[in-house]
């Protein structure tokens, strides 16, 4: 075979091999997570974590992300970024308590040892890749180099989040063509729609990479302070938390406005808060947490539940309750937990 023909054959073979080879990950080296705090076993899919820097040289803000890829088909399945509420709550909160691939295993009434983590059969990662972001800087593992950058507002957060997304997709290029959604809860009801609008605006203006944005989803969103604050009384009455007489008096004196009020409504509202005192308003069927995870006997805000003490003999602390945020702190704050998740040490 002539040298020219042989060279052509080698080039064709090399080209075909390139077509067959798996795509090279665009993420920075060392981004893959192989162990998760509290979890024993093989991760249900590929996980990655690290930082995306937004801002500029004088005011760099390093936003932490964690990506759990889809357990079904990550090359085609949607990408759904989760932005937690609060404002200023870490994305790991929702990641463990509702939508993520893991859940904390509460095998005891009170957690005294390190929390254990198991897989969540209802995880969104069953059909989507799920990145979370700690936003703004100062939340979770995210941090800023300039102390002034810890003072922010919603408009600045949206700018940083778009900057984060554009750089994140530049790093994870294999997801650029996947359908993309933004999701959040609670205070994110303020942020997510504006971020969606920003993405659409930048897509129209950009001649380069465009985010394949398809929509957004909100759970229990904060959208209107009047609606939310005025809902407390109409919610409490049908739940049986206040008396018929007090409710009728509130309706008569407050005219549907139950906050930022004056007399005589104010006096009735004081009675309202006295009647719901000691009730766990986050979940009225659960007793309020009296102790911090059973680790100490330090009293928390509420001290009701003597009935539960009489019927519950499972621990010296009496009440069946969990301080979930403290469980997250025990999992993620120690040095080893930060190492596993590629987070900056304290």
UniProtKB/TrEMBL annotation:
GO-annotated biological processes: proteolysis; secondary metabolic process
SUPFAM superfamilies attached to this UniProt entry: alpha/beta-Hydrolases
Highest taxon above the source species: Eukaryota
Keyword Signal among record annotations: yes
Matching Pfam families: Peptidase_S10
InterPro entries attached to this UniProt entry: AB_hydrolase_fold, Peptidase_S10
Annotated signal peptide: 1-26
GO MF term list: acyltransferase activity, transferring groups other than amino-acyl groups; serine-type carboxypeptidase activity
Key words, A-Z: Signal
UniProt keyword Cell wall biogenesis/degradation, yes or no: no
Protein family according to the UniProt entry: Belongs to the peptidase S10 family.
Protein's name in the database: Uncharacterized protein
Organism for this UniProt entry: Panicum virgatum (Blackwell switchgrass)
Lineage of the organism: Eukaryota, Viridiplantae, Streptophyta, Embryophyta, Tracheophyta
């Amino acid at each position: 075979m002539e040298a020219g023909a042989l060279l052509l054959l080698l080039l064709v073979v090399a080209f075909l091999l390139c077509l067959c080879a798996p795509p090279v990950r665009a993420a920075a080296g060392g981004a893959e997570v192989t162990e998760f705090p509290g979890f024993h076993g093989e991760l249900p899919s590929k996980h990655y974590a690290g930082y995306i820097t937004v801002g500029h040289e004088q005011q760099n803000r390093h936003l932490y992300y964690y990506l759990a890829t889809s357990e079904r088909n990550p090359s085609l399945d949607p990408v759904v970024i989760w932005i937690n509420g609060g404002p200023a709550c870490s994305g790991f909160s929702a990641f463990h308590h509702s939508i993520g691939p893991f859940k904390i295993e509460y095998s005891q009434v009170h957690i005294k040892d390190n929390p254990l983590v198991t897989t969540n059969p209802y995880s969104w990662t069953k059909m989507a890749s799920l990145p979370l972001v700690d936003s703004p800087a100062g939340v979770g593992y995210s941090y800023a180099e300039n102390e002034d950058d810890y003072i922010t507002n919603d408009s600045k957060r949206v700018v940083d989040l778009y900057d984060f997304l554009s750089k994140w997709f530049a790093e994870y290029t294999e997801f650029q063509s996947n359908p993309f959604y933004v999701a959040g809860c609670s205070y994110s009801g303020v942020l997510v729609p504006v971020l969606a609008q920003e993405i659409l605006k930048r897509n129209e203006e950009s001649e380069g990479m465009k985010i394949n944005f398809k929509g957004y989803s909100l759970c229990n969103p904060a959208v209107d302070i009047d609606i939310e604050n005025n809902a407390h009384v109409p919610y409490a009455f049908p739940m049986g938390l206040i008396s018929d007489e007090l409710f009728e008096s509130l309706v008569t004196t407050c005219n549907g406005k139950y906050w930022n009020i004056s007399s005589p409504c104010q006096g009735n509202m004081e009675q309202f808060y006295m009647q719901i005192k000691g009730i766990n308003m986050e979940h009225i069927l659960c007793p309020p947490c009296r102790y911090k995870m059973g680790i100490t006997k330090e009293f928390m805000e509420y001290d009701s539940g003597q009935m539960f003490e009489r019927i519950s003999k499972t621990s010296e602390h009496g009440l069946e309750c969990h301080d979930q945020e403290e469980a997250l702190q025990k999992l993620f704050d120690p040095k080893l937990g930060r190492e596993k998740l590629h987070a900056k040490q304290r």
